[in-house]
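Feature request, filed as a ticket because there's no other form

It would be nice if the structure record came with a short human-readable summary line next to the tokens. Right now we just get the raw output. Example of a typical job, pasted below so the devs can see what we mean:
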Amino acid sequence: GIRVLDWTQFQAGPVAGMLLGDLGADVIKIEERTGGDLGRGVVATGGKEFAAVARNPYFEIGNRNKRSVTLDLRKEEGRDIMYRLAEKSDVFLHNFRQKAVEQLGLQYEVMSRLNPRLVYAQVSGWGPKGPDKDDPGFDPAALGRSGVWSLITEPGRDFQWPQGGYADQMGAFTAAYGILAALIAREKT
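Raw output as currently delivered:
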């Protein structure tokens, strides 16, 4: 009975929505009309055999258990559809930089006016406030800033690249966990 609007791309955001879908939520993936989720273009570095595969496992795994719609959120008609969906949803999940969210009119203040019970969740590398709020936050940057890279690389050796988007995965699990806690709190308050 929980509906999630999932306006995310690449890994951390989509995996958070995927986890909610795995638990039975009705997740509606919102993609940009002409190019879709940029994660659709990610290919593995494992070899030529992957390039021959018509489907993209990186995208499909992180977006399983979701329905999908494309919207041009730069146009009023696209935003109106998003607003109507938000009025009937329980969660709005995104992982876009604050500046982009504000330019499109999808910030918390707007969305919560449409639906005061809406759980608004932003997966962000550096948070919605502060000097780095509009900097991109991909997995390697988070690994470096958090100090995780120093834990997996021995001094004097070449750095070890952890596979699988370790920081993005942890961000996704943390976001899904926080959303679940917010839904419980919403029901009790």
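Something like this underneath would help us a lot:
The chain has nine helices and five strands.
The chain has a mean pLDDT of 90.
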